[in-house]
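From the pipeline queue, job 12 of 40. The input is one protein chain; the requested action is below.

Action: predict structure.
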Amino acid sequence: MGRGTLNKFGAAVHQNYLCMKMPGPAGVITVCGDQDAERRIDYGHSPHSDAKMIHAVGNHEANEAKAPAGVRPARAEAEGGTHAVAVDPAHLEPVFQIGDSLSLEAEAVIIKVLQDNMDMFAWSPAY
């Protein structure tokens, strides 16, 4: 469904929960997707599961052991190294970490997008 159709139905979609709610003649109509089926599709049965993207991370097996309480799980790391890029040439801060494996053209495009959207990033914690 496109945004226009969702607006016409007055539907509210929550993609993380695969759930949609909309008003109906006898109350709220709730439509839920199958999260297990979605996970199977996303994690291993997708026709593009081997495709590499610009921001590809290492294809490592997940550790099945449960992490002890209070221990954060490991973060995804970029393939190859990264380097810091100051988005505003007039200031050394803030900086973004950009992958070393990107071409100069791809890096320039990413930096341009970051510069155009500087107001979208939280540079300090909100209280």
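Job complete. The mean pLDDT is 75.
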